[in-house]
Automatic annotation (TrEMBL):
GO terms for biological process: guanosine tetraphosphate metabolic process. It comes from Desulfuromonas acetoxidans (strain DSM 684 / 11070). Its EC number is 2.7.6.5. One of its GO terms (molecular function) is hydrolase activity. This is Metal dependent phosphohydrolase. The keyword Transferase applies. The keyword Transferase applies. Keywords: Transferase. Residues 77-175 form the HD domain. It comes from the Bacteria. Belongs to the RelA/SpoT family.
Length: 495
């Protein structure tokens, strides 16, 4: 290489280094600004100063530990923990979580130990970092190591739900930057994401995160369909741009006349297999206009104004504002004829929009932590180290009721038998049949959202192996397996 070429190479390397430093500085500033904005008001001046000092210390440790590491794409490794930390900060996570996000790979990928993390940043941060660290053991197979890593994450999540939230941000950034990996490795990560992390995101109320994880995973598994979908969405967006701008202007003018504070957001469906089947059905199948207002009352006023502006389509009104949809999203959904376009509109409050974006992390979100801990324990008690097959409990749910009016959340597709075990193991073991909304039904009957269920029992249990085909929840299946094994042991003993 000539001297001129060496000089040019050195200059380009220096410029790239400066660019990286500017980007890193901006990421850290954004993280600190979000932490102060979201949490500064609830902290004393001393606590806030301590938090900033710990944050800077974590950044310095991550910077030093990952100094010589690069990702497959060639970028400095430090960008990954910084982006994960920024995602966490955008979704209301506090200082300890952000510090753990910055350090989430130092124990796994560098000489830094968990004890050193705990000594410098405390037990809370160390617990989160532990939950994000892969299990390593040269004597174990890849599959067993993966299952043990899941187990570690779940055990920590039972103590602190934030570890799963951080894992979602970690996985999201990995999928966004996955292009440099070998195709077969990409496929493994995409399949694992669909099997484990998307259902968990839905169970945590993080609908938008689940949608993006699904879109990124499916784009890896079905690249041609994803490419066609993006092309159709782009063409539809360009073709309808002028009309949509006029609709937005008309809506804003009407709402301003009635002193309604509103924000309008374009919402194109993320790529999904269902969405791919909708291609060709027009803009209403792939796009909705999101209308954000301040209160529930304003949402109903907005609905009236919209239906006065545009003709509503019969049978297309869904009110999930006070009774959440199966995925937990709270909004009024309607479809209107706006000029040449049939348009889907979702009206919700800013508060509920935060819930759908950040789920369990959003201020005010009501999360049944005990139910979640029970789910995690039942998954760990399954036949495998981590019962992935029945993680569907963590996705779409239904709400059913006892005869006394108490509600129970169950996975979509649950049977009356699942309901019995949800109430109590003894009730499930002695179940005979069910009364659903006053009608006598067999135990394998699938429940619908809103059903009221009463379980009739017998003195002598009639548990059969086929009950495993009727039940979908880990709790019910684990109880049935245990009882059947007990019967087998007792029969051998009697023989």
């Amino acid at each position: 290489m000539s001297q001129a070429q060496l000089f040019k190479f050195d200059s380009e390397a220096a410029m790239k280094k400066k660019q990286y430093q500017r980007e890193i500085h901006k990421l850290m500033n954004d993280i600190a600004e979000l932490l102060v904005t979201h949490h500064g008001g609830s902290l004393s001046e001393g606590d806030l100063d301590h938090g900033i000092k710990q944050l800077n210390g974590a950044f310095k440790l991550a910077q030093d530990a990952h100094a010589e590491q690069k990702r497959k794409s060639g970028e400095p490794y430090l960008f990954h923990p910084l982006r994960v930390a920024l995602l966490a900060a955008r979704h209301w996570m506090e200082f300890s979580s952000i510090i753990a996000a910055l350090l989430h790979d130092v124990v796994e990928d560098t000489p830094v130990t968990l004890d050193e993390v705990e000594a410098d940043f405390g037990a809370e941060v160390a617990l989160l970092v532990k939950g994000l660290t892969k299990v390593e053991d040269a004597a174990l197979s890849r599959e067993i190591l993966k299952a043990e890593t899941y187990r570690n994450q779940i055990l920590v999540a039972i103590k602190d739900i934030r570890v799963l939230c951080l894992k979602l941000w970690d996985r999201l950034d990995n999928l966004r930057t996955i292009g440099a990996l070998k195709p077969e490795k990409q496929v493994l990560i995409a399949e694992e994401t669909r099997t484990v992390y998307i259902p968990l995101a839905r169970h945590l109320g993080m609908g938008q995160v689940a949608d993006e994880l699904e879109a990124l995973s499916l784009a890896i598994l079905y690249p041609r369909r994803a490419s066609r979908y993006r092309r159709v969405v782009k063409e539809l967006g360009e073709r309808s741009d002028s009309a949509r701008r006029q609709i937005r202007n008309d809506i804003t003018t009407e709402f301003n006349r009635h002193h309604l504070n509103v924000a309008l957001k374009d919402n194109w469906r993320s790529f999904s297999l269902e969405g791919a089947m909708r291609v060709g059905r027009g803009i209403s199948a792939l796009y909705s206009l999101d209308v954000l207002v301040d209160s529930t009352m304003d949402a109903y006023v907005a609905l009236g104004l919209l239906h006065r502006l545009y003709q509503p389509i019969t049978g297309k009104l869904r009110d999930h504002l006070n009774a959440p949809s199966q995925h937990g999203y709270q909004a009024i959904k309607t479809t209107v004829q706006a000029g040449e376009y049939r348009l889907r509109i979702q009206i919700t409050t800013r508060k509920f929009e935060r819930f759908n974006e950040s789920g369990v992390l959003a201020p005010g979100f009501e999360f049944r932590r005990e139910n979640f801990a029970g789910l995690m324990r039942s998954l760990l008690d399954g036949e495998s180290i981590f019962d992935i097959d029945h993680l569907r409990l963590a996705s779409a749910t239904i709400q059913v009721y006892t005869p006394n009016g108490e509600s129970r959340m169950l996975p979509e597709g649950s049977s009356a038998l699942d309901f019995a075990f949800e109430i109590h193991e003894k009730l499930g073991i002695h179940a005979f049949r069910a009364r659903i909304n006053g009608q006598t039904r067999v135990l394998k009957t699938r429940l619908m959202d809103g059903d009221q269920v009463q379980i009739e029992t017998v003195d002598v249990p009639g548990v059969l192996p086929k009950w495993l085909d009727w039940a979908v929840t880990p709790r019910a299946r684990n109880s049935i397996r245990r009882y059947l094994r007990t019967i087998v042991r007792d029969n051998k003993h009697n023989d």
